[in-house]
């Protein structure tokens, strides 16, 4: 049975939650090793804020690269059918024929670093000609009067009926943006993506 996708528990754990969501999306609950969950949480949130508080700058891009290597090694040693690839910089675009686009069309999942006022990680699970489907682990309710107005800008739509796959649809023009507005990936030099596949499918 596939699990529902999860929301983050604090302001800072979007990285490990999105990686775990990738595993939840790709694999049945009965297939997932508990130690995978343990070590994803252990190795992410590896940063310090300006006052030296651990974890309060979230997950670094280098930790995402490490997790890809760790998951690939885990898959090889445990005969677990996972394959991960990391993209950085100019490789991270969502355009026709790009590696992210092709991965999504082939049934993969992509943990993507973008902006939600600050650097943030989400899970991409699908794509069409106009938008990407994503699961944003930062919980918001569409009818909340305190919901940030940015969510109502052009190119952002809420999805409420696919809790095992997506809670947002974001236009390709927005997500490919080089700024730091909601759900833009920002400058090419800052971009990071983790592509995940279930190789048994």
Name the structural class: alpha+beta
**CATH architect. name:** Alpha-Beta Complex
Q: Please name the CATH topology.
A: Cathepsin B, Chain A
Give the total of beta strands.
7
- How large is the count of helical segments? 5
CATH superfamily: Cysteine proteinases
Shape: globular
Rounded mean pLDDT score: 95
Low-confidence stretches: none
Q: How far from one another are the termini?
A: 15 Å
Proportion in helices = 25-40%
The domain count comes to 1
Compressed to H and E, one letter per element, the order equals HHHEHEEEEEHE
Widest sheet: strand order? 1-7-2-3-4-6-5
* Major pleated sheet: 7 strands, antiparallel
| CATH class assignment | Alpha Beta
Radius of gyration: 16 Å
Strand content: 15-25%
Describe the structure in your own words.
There is one protein chain. Helix content is 26%, strand content 22%. With 201 residues, it is of the alpha+beta class. It has one domain: Cysteine proteinases (Cathepsin B, Chain A, Alpha-Beta Complex), CATH 3.90.70. The longest helix is centred in the middle third of the chain and has 18 residues. It is globular, with a radius of gyration of 16 Å. It starts with 13 loop residues before the first helix and ends with a strand. 36% of the residues are buried.
Short précis:
This protein has 201 residues and is α+β, with helices and mostly antiparallel strands.
List keywords for this structure.
single chain, 26% helix, 201 residues, Cathepsin B, Chain A, globular, alpha+beta, 7-stranded antiparallel β-sheet
């Amino acid at each position: 049975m596939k699990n529902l996708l999860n929301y983050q528990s604090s302001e800072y754990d979007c990285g490990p939650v999105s990686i775990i969501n990738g595993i939840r999306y790709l694999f049945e609950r009965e297939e997932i090793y508990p130690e995978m969950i343990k070590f994803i949480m252990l190795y992410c949130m590896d940063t310090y804020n300006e006052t030296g508080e651990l974890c309060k700058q979230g997950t670094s891009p280098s930790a995402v690269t490490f997790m890809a290597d760790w998951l690939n090694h885990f898959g090889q040693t445990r005969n677990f059918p996972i394959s991960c690839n990391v993209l950085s910089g100019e490789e991270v675009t969502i355009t026709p024929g790009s590696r992210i686009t092709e991965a999504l069309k082939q049934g993969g999942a992509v943990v993507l670093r973008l902006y939600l006022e600050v650097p943030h990680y989400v899970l991409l699970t699908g794509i069409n000609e106009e938008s990407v489907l994503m699961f944003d682990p930062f919980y918001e309710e569409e009818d909340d009067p305190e919901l940030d107005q940015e969510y109502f800008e052009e190119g952002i739509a809420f999805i409420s009926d696919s809790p095992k796959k997506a809670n947002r649809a974001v236009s390709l023009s927005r997500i490919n943006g080089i700024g730091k507005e909601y759900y833009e990936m920002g400058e090419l030099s800052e971009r990071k993506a983790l592509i995940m596949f279930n190789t048994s499918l």
